[in-house]
Amino acid sequence: MKPINIKTFTTTLFALFAFAGNSVLCRLALGDGQIDATSFTIIRLVSGALAFMAIFWIGGRINRSNNTFTRKRVFQSIRKKWIASAMLFVYAVGFSFAYIALDTGVGALVLFGTVQLTMIAVSIYKQEQLPWHHIVGIALAFCGLWFLIYSQLDWQATNLSLLGFVFMVFAGMAWGGYTLLGRGSTSPFIDTSANFMLSVLFCIPLLAVYLFMPAAISADGFWLAVSSGVITSAFGYAIWYVALPSLSRVQAGVVQLLVPIIAAVGGAIWVGEAITLPLIIAQTMVLGGIAMVMIKAR
User: Fold this and answer.
1) What is the dihedral of CA 15, 229, 212, 219, to 10 degrees?
2) Could you tell me which residue, 139 or 97, shows the higher pLDDT?
């Protein structure tokens, strides 16, 4: 297992808050019907791509030689990023359509629980050796998550639809794959910008959904989607790619289990969802499990 330094800790923490922010922004926009899921997905991906284009344009105005080099690297990266971009697109679509029905905390639980299962499955396939305290930590974190989701299903069962669950599972599998691909990134901002730019092309066939579900966009819904695309998605994912090379597969998977806890608290503050005793108990269990996994084996 890899040791965790200050840079890795800081970038990982920033990325996790960005992930939780996505859940809150999406639930705020879709839960109140301020925007439809298709429009939210398209605006989110397009605004993220435009944000990176603006960064490179501004950087080029300051240093033209550096801009030429950056453009060349972006185009080279684009040619190699079709799989990562497809996964980013699948994640964004599943994420948006799932949050039509799921509450903030429940959606994040399903999403990152699936991410964790995906990454553990890959680790097992790669025949990685896990220290005993990492296995215990994974089990403890999962027990905390399942305790929380069970308690929520006990009194909020009507908010969990089967279709929303399926959409979020697909989103989690796609995000797990996207995360694994990012572990080999040597140019996080270049790679993330290429992923977002290519994902815009995948949005073109998504427009066909408007034939069956007309667009419904309010001003607030539009700006929530833009905020999700630029701040918590584009920049958040780039920072995540900075942290990933310093994390093992298991560490990268388990640490994301902190997101549902952050998202649930954010949902309580911004969406009006209740903070309950089961949430506090689950938070303690998840944080304890994460701590065990992040400890370097002797």
Assistant:
1) 130
2) 97
Instruction: Specify the pTM.
Output: 0.80
- The stretches of the chain forming alpha helices (DSSP H) are 6-31, 37-62, 64-80, 82-98, 104-125, 132-156, 162-182, 188-206, 219-227, 236-243, 249-255, 258-266, 277-294
Cα gap 188→172, rounded to integer Å: 21
Name which of 100, 95, 125 is nearest 110 in CA terms. Answer: 95
Amino acid at 221: G
> What spatial distance separates the first Cα and last Cα of the chain, rounded to whole Å?
10
pLDDT category of residue 221 using cuts at 50, 70 and 90: very high
Q: Give yes or no for a contact between 272 and 103, defined as CB atoms under 8 angstroms apart.
A: no
Give the number of other CB atoms < 10 A from CB of residue 257: 26
Q: Identify the three-state secondary structure at position 35.
A: strand
247/288 Cα distance (integer angstroms): 18
